[in-house]
Write a structure and sequence with these properties.
Layout lengths: L6 H8 L7 E4 L2 E4 L2 H8 L9 E5 L5 H12 L4 H4 L4 H4 L9 H7 L4 H4 L8 E4 L10 H4 L1 E6 L2 H15 L8 H10 L7 H9 L7 E5 H6 L1 H11 L6 H10 L2 H5 L39 H15 L9
Parallel strand pairs: 3-4, 3-5, 5-6
Antiparallel strand pairs: 1-2
Length: 312
């Protein structure tokens, strides 16, 4: 993306006032122009040396994309820190709002990445059925699953941060959107199950957010081998230190917070941040007993017989 605009221009454009708009594509709610991105991906040229990070929103995408970027740079962290993660790992459907993009003649990101040199690390939240048909037999894809209860909480704060019109959104309202499948990117259970069914495909690596928290170093080594890299122990150790939540949060080249000014919260509210807590189990401080029971029932219904379970 920095082949088209600089980081300073990127920050300036995103700072302009805009209204968050949504579209629907085959019944799935996407951010503005998401349907154009899906159409473009039908003929997108996937390369054999591409690496893709795909997740439902707020499942650990920024974390794993940074790990993948470090691995594909062979652990050269000095080189990694020369460019922001949003430019090192283009987010295919995260286009500037249409009104701003058209005024500035900035193309769709899916068009920009066609011109990038290999190897590319690419990112998407799109459901599996919307991704390029070539993907599965050509590139490597990493998918991250996170306890949906924590996803609801993290996504709730993200929506309030991203969309000024949602700054007073109640948690109960967003909980209902998530449990009815009406949140952006559609039902999280369908998103999960598409990749869960592909977990044995040789070009797909399925990870759990909670496992990354328990054993970051071990999972970085697993990612490295999956991407065809045999990095020495010192490089794996350095990537592990670089990719701790604390170090990424304070690193302006890894934390998306450095790219825009988040809306100021109410005087009695916690500061709004893209990288908020990165915790396991934060849902326990947000869910009511009734919400927890409703989510447990939904999980039983949607995942019965699939073998996919979540830690409580």
């Amino acid at each position: 993306m920095d082949t088209v605009i600089s980081i300073e221009e990127y920050k300036r454009l995103w700072a302009q006032p805009f209204k968050m708009r949504y579209v629907e594509h085959e019944g799935i709610k996407l951010f503005e122009e998401g349907d154009d991105v899906v159409k473009a991906l039908k003929t997108f040229e996937v390369r054999d040396d591409d690496s893709w990070i795909v997740t439902y929103p707020k499942a650990g995408t920024t974390w794993v994309q940074e790990i993948m970027s470090c691995v594909m740079h062979d652990g050269n962290l000095e080189e990694v820190n020369k460019r922001h993660t949003v430019f090192r790992v283009p987010f295919l459907e995260n286009n500037l709002p249409k009104t701003i993009r058209q005024d500035t003649k900035v193309p769709l990101i899916s068009d920009v990445v066609e011109t990038l040199p290999s190897p590319r690390v690419l990112k998407s939240h799109l459901p599996g059925q919307f991704l390029p048909p070539q993907l599965w037999d050509k590139a490597k894809t990493i998918y991250v699953i996170r306890n949906p209860k924590d996803v609801v909480v993290s996504f709730f704060y993200f929506v309030r941060m991203l969309n000024p019109e949602k700054s007073d959104l109640a948690f109960s309202e967003f909980f209902d959107e998530m449990t009815s499948g009406k949140a952006p990117y559609g039902p999280w259970w369908d998103h999960y199950l598409y990749f869960w069914k592909m977990r044995h495909h040789p070009n797909v690596l399925l990870l759990r957010f909670e496992d990354l928290k328990r054993d970051l170093r071990g999972n970085i080594e697993k990612i490295s081998k999956f991407l065809g890299k045999d990095l020495p122990a010192e490089a794996l150790d350095a990537i592990t230190d670089h990719c701790t939540f604390a170090n990424m949060k304070k690193n302006p080249m890894a934390n998306p917070d450095s790219l825009w000014e988040p809306p100021k919260p109410a005087a009695d509210a916690a500061p709004i941040s893209f990288m908020r807590k990165g915790k396991v189990g934060d849902w326990k401080s947000h869910f009511t007993v009734a919400q927890n029971e409703a989510m447990d029932a939904l999980i039983r219904d949607k995942f019965y017989g699939t073998g996919l379970t979540f830690d409580q």
